[in-house]
Amino acid sequence: MSRAGVPVAAAVIVLATLSRPVQAQAPGQGGAAPPPAVLVAPIRVENVAPVYSFIGRVVAIQSVQVVARVTAFIEKEPAKQGSDVKAGETLFELQKTQYQAAVQAAQAQLDGANAAVRNAQLAYDRSSRLAKQGFEAQANFDQATATLQQNQSNVLAAQANLTQAALNLSYCTIVSPIDGRIGAVTLTVGNLVTPSTPPLLTVNELDPIRVVYSVSDRTLVAARQRTGASTEQLAADLVVEIVLPDGSKYAHTGKISFLSNEVDPQTGTVSVYADFPNPERLLLPGSFVTTNVRRGQPEEAPLVPVAAVQTEQSGRFVLLVDPDNTVRQQPIELGRQVGQDYIATKGLRGGERVIVEGVQKVHPGQKVNPQPLPQATPVAAAVTGQGGG
After folding, report:
1. Tens of pLDDT, residues 207-223
2. In the beta sheet, which residues pair with residue 66?
3. What is the 3-state secondary structure (H, E, C) of the chain?
4. Residues 101 and 147 in one domain
5. Are 303 and 279 in contact, with CB atoms under 8 Å apart?
6. Phi (first) and psi of residue 21, to 5 degrees
7. What angle do CA 274, 275, 280 make, to 5 degrees?
8. Do 85 and 161 have their domain in common?
9. Residue 339 CB contacts under 8 Å (≥ 6 apart), including other chains
């Protein structure tokens, strides 16, 4: 072959090489990995009764501190501490002798004042007749008039003294102003009490009873926006239940009796009072209970599988798969658990796809291969014990 043929042959070889089809690289030899497969479930929307839980403190609707209103020795203590009493029932009997004497003295003073008025009236009538006939000096008539008026004033003063004396005597019998239960008695028979003595005991009304708790203004606003009801309408429609300290459910439901008209600027919460029947006297003032508040009528709410819920320092979240199969982290707020789901009170809409299995191998912004969760898969099996937030 001549030297002129060498370049031509080389060119043919190069063209042949460039025109050869590129073969696909085998997996594991530098190619891009396929998107990881994850199991997803749709966010369902169902009619449920959302329940909000709060820690409440039990207080008496009426609580009266019983004090002495006069100075006297305690003579009797008919009602015993810890017992139930009715309004008007006697709690203490104080020594009455000096106050009975004061009533008698005031009555005698009133009788004397009335007698003086009768005499003054006779003198006035006589002076008035003589003055009209011209036989009585005007000065004498004026004096008779003044004397009558003075004695009439004395009668009014004596009546006031008698009223006060009788009132003081009545204070010697100390009665319960309300139905309730007596607390610890600080002083017993034989002790001297005065109006400045600390309360002798406290009577707490126990049936009905009140639970006081606080609701964040954010929760209240969200509930109003979701239902379209006013605060008053919302309060009237809510049913309040109690979980006792031992975890059992209280037998009676309550109704909201008061919802504050202002937000506490220190806590960002609104005070709420709920009143309950308490015939068994099971709830006592000062104890703490869990209050579960729900609407009387169910409403539509999104449900998220328990297994999909993740927790970080800032709160709870789920990983959603967008229509283009991209992972997105979504912060959420939760209500109570319903079976294998939580009620999502904020952050989710019906139809969104949430990752239930495979969360550990993906991150936000990553493409995934979503696969529907089989119906038989026990969604909540791996997360029992978690509560709603």
Report:
1. 999 999 999 888 888 77
2. 201
3. CCCCHHHHHHHHHHHHHHHCCCCCCCCCCCCCCCCCEEEEEECEEEEECCEEEEEEEEECCCEEEECCCCCEEEEECCCCCCCEECCCCEEEEECCHHHHHHHHHHHHHHHHHHHHHHHHHHHHHHHHHHHHHCCCCHHHHHHHHHHHHHHHHHHHHHHHHHHHHHHHHHCCEEECCCCEEECCCCCCCCCEECCCCCCCEEEECCCCEEEEEEEEHHHHHHHHHHHCCCHHHHHHHEEEEEECCCCCECCCCEEEEEECCCCECCCCEEEEEEEECCCCCCCCCCCEEEEEEEECCCEEEEEEEHHHCEEECCEEEEEEECCCCEEEEEEEEEEEEECCEEEEEECCCCCCEEEEECHHHCCCCCECEEEECCCCCCCCHHHCCCCCC
4. yes
5. no
6. -65, 140
7. 135
8. no
9. 380
Q: How many residues does the chain have?
A: 389
> 250, 289 in Cβ contact below 8 A?
yes
* Contact indicator for 311, 343 with CB cutoff of 8 Å: no
Parallel/antiparallel/unpaired status of strands 369-372 and 37-42 = parallel
Q: What are residue 153's phi and psi, to 5 degrees?
A: -65, -35
Q: What are phi and psi of 105, to 5 degrees?
A: -65, -40
Tell me the two tokens of residue 346: 């904020």
pLDDT-based confidence at 44, cuts 50/70/90?
very high
Which of these three, 262, 295, 328, is where a domain ends? 295
- The first and second tokens of residue 254, run together, are 């309550």
Token representation of residue 389:
């937030």
Q: Which residue has the tokens 């998220």?
A: 304
Q: What is the phi/psi pair of residue 180, to 5°?
A: 170, -165
Domain span including residue 276: 52-61+205-295
> Which amino acid, one-letter code, is at 294?
R
Q: Which residues of 187-213 are buried (b: 16+ CB within 10 A; e: fewer)?
A: beeeeebeeeeeebbbbbbbbbbbbeb
* Rounded-to-integer distance, Cα 243 and Cα 55, Å: 10
Structure tokens at 207: 């049936």
Residue 30: pLDDT band by 50, 70, 90 thresholds? Answer: low
pLDDT one-digit tens code per residue, 56-80: 999 999 999 999 999 999 999 988 8
Where residue 74 sits, what CATH number does that domain have?
Answer: 2.40.50.100
d(CA 153, CA 10): 144
Q: What's the sign of the alpha-carbon dihedral 217, 219, 220, 226?
A: positive
